[in-house]
Write a structure and sequence with these properties.
The protein is mostly helical. It has helices at 2-9, 21-40, 46-82, 86-109, 117-146, 149-164.
Length: 176
């Protein structure tokens, strides 16, 4: 697993070369980290910085919401099916997602110069970084051990379709 995760993490900003769902998620994580770095950047003039932070916040929230929705729709059902400890992992992620949702809402509702913007951005950054670390260091290796290559390839396709707004079929059954 470590080799696959490392391979996925080296292709920053590119689509995965293979159809592995874990690589799709790692590529998403690299994109989220890029957006977090943009949001935290304080370079340039004040007006450019304000515009840049607003744009970065909007892009981060859109990408993060699509990522989390795809995980909910595709990764979590697979995890619950393949791992006896999957339900507990999903519950931990769900609690953290609720906190992320609150910070995303605050970030979207605040202007970059408002007092609530920077703390919401900082808290969201911390939650996203913990989400990425927890998944890539713990969850993905376990899933890699539990799922076969065909299942991981199917997960990759389902994740891409979910992020594209289409409705993938999960194991031949409509999602529901």
């Amino acid at each position: 697993m470590r080799g696959q995760a490392e391979a996925a993490t080296t292709r920053i900003g590119t689509e995965p070369a293979v159809d592995d769902g874990l690589e799709v998620l790692c590529a998403d994580h690299r994109r989220l980290q890029e957006l977090l770095a943009e949001l935290g950047s304080d370079s340039g003039s004040r007006s450019a910085n304000v515009y840049g932070r607003r744009r970065a916040a909007d892009a981060l929230v859109a990408e993060l919401r699509a990522h989390l929705a795809a995980e909910d729709r595709c990764l979590h059902p697979m995890l619950g099916e393949l791992r006896s400890d999957g339900r507990a992992s999903i519950e931990r992620e769900t609690a953290d997602r609720e906190k992320m949702a609150d910070f995303m809402d605050t970030l979207l509702g605040a202007g970059p110069m408002e007092n609530t913007f920077a703390p919401a951005a900082a808290h969201l950054l911390g939650h996203v970084e913990r989400h990425i670390a927890r998944q890539e260091e713990t969850l993905f290796p376990l899933l890699f051990e539990s799922a076969g290559p065909d299942q991981l390839a199917a997960l990759g396709e389902q994740l891409r379709q979910a992020k594209a707004g289409t409705t993938p079929e999960l194991d031949g059954e409509p999602p529901g």
